[in-house]
């Protein structure tokens, strides 16, 4: 049902997250803005298939959520 991304696409996404984190570094000194940016970058980093990140993470938790 969900299609996993190939390794090159995952590597490119994660490279883009690193670059975006470096570019956004000056704005990360503002705490409310930093938490939103970190949250968004973390979701992009974890995305390795078409499955929603929240669903994949809840399955990893073993039914805890």
Outline the structure in words.
- The two termini are 22 Å apart.
- This protein is an all-alpha fold.
- The chain has helices spanning 7-23, 31-46, 53-60.
- The protein is built from three helices and no strands.
Keywords:
65 residues, mainly alpha, 63% helix, single chain, flat
The helix/strand class is mainly alpha
What is the 3D form? flat
Rg over CA atoms, rounded to whole Å, is 14 Å
Major beta sheet summary: none
Mean pLDDT: 87
Count the strands?
0
Helix content: 55-70%
The proportion of strand residues reads under 5%
Low-confidence stretches: none
N-to-C CA distance: 22 Å
Number of helices: 3
Explain briefly what this protein structure is.
Helices cover 63% and strands 0% of the residues.
List the helices and strands and how they pair.
Blueprint: H1 7-23, H2 31-46, H3 53-60
Helix pairs in contact: 1-2
């Amino acid at each position: 049902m969900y299609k996993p991304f190939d390794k090159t696409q995952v590597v490119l996404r994660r490279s883009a997250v690193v670059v975006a984190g470096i570019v956004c570094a000056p704005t990360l000194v503002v705490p409310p803005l930093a938490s939103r940016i970190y949250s968004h970058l973390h979701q992009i980093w974890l995305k390795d298939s078409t499955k929603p990140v929240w669903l994949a993470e809840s399955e990893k938790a073993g039914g805890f959520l």
